Sequence to fold (297 residues):
Amino acid sequence: MDERVEKARLLQEALPYIREFHGKVFVIKYGGSAMHDESLRESFAKDVVLLKYVGINPVIVHGGGPQISKTLEVFGIKPEFVGGIRKTDERTMHVVEMVLSGDVNKDIVALINRFSGEKVYAVGLSGRDGRLLKARKLDKERFFGQMGLPVPEEDFGFVGEVTDVNEELLLTLLEHDFIPVIAPVGVGEKGEAYNVNADLAAAAVAKELKAEKVIYLTDTPGVLDEEGKLISTLNAEGVNELLKKGVVKGGMAVKLLSALNALKGGVKKAHVIDGRVRHSLLLEVFTKEGIGTEVVL
Fold:
């Protein structure tokens, strides 16, 4: 009986958050172990469906780096990275789009739809569909300058950054109870494809939708300080300090910079949470303590 009472208490604790977030948009960057471990995959999918059924509008932007690298090797193409960015020539871009917009995207859509019931469906989109993610070639001077890193001389090829998001397309899907699942492939002015970092794409989508939250799933407990301890709340000044000291780098640096960009664009809150923890989304959204790191201005 005590266990059942505790479950009821937890449901009651969630009530104020369900009420507060009803009708709001959450943009969720899905990646890391949560995409590969089968129990975590199912946990994530069920959590997303639950969010939708209690009136929250989740929008998923996913990664797929390991799958891209594996497929490139199958085709005899050696993956190349400079400063954490994948060099993307024309052949590589074809593989990137095939993997992200095909295998990975449709796999996530099918997974969510296993648990979605009869009234809610996930729908997969590439950034090229409906010109959802308009993009241009990445400004590498600005990108690396933000992280305090030297600018590489190499040309990154078809690596892009989002310039505009088709808000109308996403709002139409949300109004009809679809869960958009977005592959971060951008489209240029001439219809060419660009490989867009999923963290940056998630921030761009969140800004355009004026989302309540942008949430990044990672393979760490959150943002860690110099001693490896979790930072529960981190402001812009703290982010800049961590970058300057080199405490955060690579993927985490990109997440934090994109989180700040989203917040400056009108997103209410940004969170970096541990995707290795089952139901981490629910723990962040529906409990007082939350999980991971909250990023604020």
Notes: The chain has ten helices and 14 strands. The first strand starts at residue 25 and ends at 30. The radius of gyration is 19 Å. The mean pLDDT is 93.
